[in-house]
Amino acid sequence: MKRTILTHISEVVTPQGSKALHGKDMGKVKRLKNAAIVIEDGKILAVGPNEETVEKYHITNIILKDMTGKCILPGFVDSHTHFIFGGYRPDEFMMRLNGASYLEIHKAGGGIWNTVQATRSMSLDEMVQTGKERLSDMLSMGVTTVEGKSGYGLDRECELRQLEALEILKKEQPVSLVNTFLGAHSIPEEYKGRSDEYIDFLIREMLPVVKEKNLAEYVDIFCENSVFDCEQSRRYLLAAKEMGFGVKIHADEIEALGGSGVAAEVGAVSADHLLMIRKADCEKLAASDTVATLLPATAFCLHKPYAPAREMIDSGCAVALASDYNPGSCFTNSIPLLFALAVIHMKMSLEEALCALTLNGAAAVGKADQIGSIEPGKAADLVVLEKPQYEFLVYHTAKNIVGEVYKDGNMVYSKR
Q: How far apart are CA 214 and CA 163, in angstroms?
């Protein structure tokens, strides 16, 4: 038995529960000052006032760590990323800033196909090495669990290679990974004008292999005009569910097609983006267990209006926040930026933003019963801030104030 007590914590701040919090409940966090956290065999054994907790749980050979002047939060969960990719697209980004349209960028050789070609040329070792570097950067910002998608291969070999890289990374670095198969990220050049046939190929030839090799927990699709429509998305996700996958969907990002409504209908674990969500679909999400995952850094980078977070929470939705880290529309994984955008620009309270990046993020990857809050029985995934109170998350705007990170009770990052 290995027991550690983090003592004299300035404050512990956490949402509570084992499933996503909806609506006004997102703003209810537990805030305990001068606290202690007891960790045993990688899990949280107790949380409480410092003196009485230390006295109750102190045993011989225990490790005591003084956290005076520090605030501790649950480990952050980035529930939507595309961090396994090859190549970069800075020229395309600058073209967009200068007013170029998607079609103009595509004609100049940009767009997703640029990344697909670069990713197809990567070896498995190259994917693993770049993945380690990117995950290390995420860890330094307090991220302890990451959802990683395939989707830049759009063929059998490269899609499987991306998922295999994620499996290797699970064993070679401390951040927990949740794998999502996103073969339906776009229509590959080989299937141009034949989107139904590509969906058939994915259902017939890809999903069974991914399931047999146990390479992904979730299946995702990009439901958008000129990509996959609602009916194709519904058909694909239902086929994936029948095979035993959990499902997710990129929905209502560019146009209000109703993909978020499809997510609620099929029981998706999350519907992501939602910049253009319709009121009726917002109500469907609020009445469902589907988490509305918002990606404000993407809207920021594309200079688009943000998803209506305030309206969604007030309607009773369970909202999560994630980075959408990718080489095209959002080449950032900055958690400090997410907090700033959510609270300053999207009218979320700091408590709601914290819930969205912890417990609700955990629910968006099906892990809310294991991670996402500081409660007995959950994994000791913890973020130690260099500051005494959690308001510094937005007060020290867009600054990384993470001093230490604990994963399963072990310190896996220290700024010192």
A: 10
Is-contact 177 213, C-beta < 8 A? no
Phi and psi dihedrals of 268, rounded to 5?
A: -65, 150
Strand order in the sheet with 76-81: 76-81, 143-149, 176-184, 218-221, 246-251, 270-273, 291-294, 319-321
| Residues 280-335: tens digit of each pLDDT | 999 999 999 999 999 999 999 999 999 999 999 999 999 999 999 999 999 999 99
CA-angle at 337, arms to 340 and 134, nearest 5°? 160
End-to-end distance of the chain based on CA atoms, in angstroms?
A: 28
Q: Match 């993909």 to its residue by tokens.
A: 259
255 within 8 A of 224, measured Cβ to Cβ = yes
**Beta-carbon contacts of residue 268 (< 8 Å; ≥ 6 apart):** 237, 246, 247, 248, 249, 262, 290
If DSSP codes are grouped into helix, strand and coil, which group holds residue 375? coil
Give dist(CA 36, CA 51) in Å, integer: 8
Q: Tell me: the pLDDT tens digits for 15-49?
A: 999 999 999 999 999 999 999 999 999 999 999 99
Q: Are 37 and 374 contacting, i.e. CB atoms less than 8 angstroms apart?
A: yes
| Cβ atoms 71, 65 nearer than 8 A | no
Residue 173, classed as helix, strand or coil, is coil
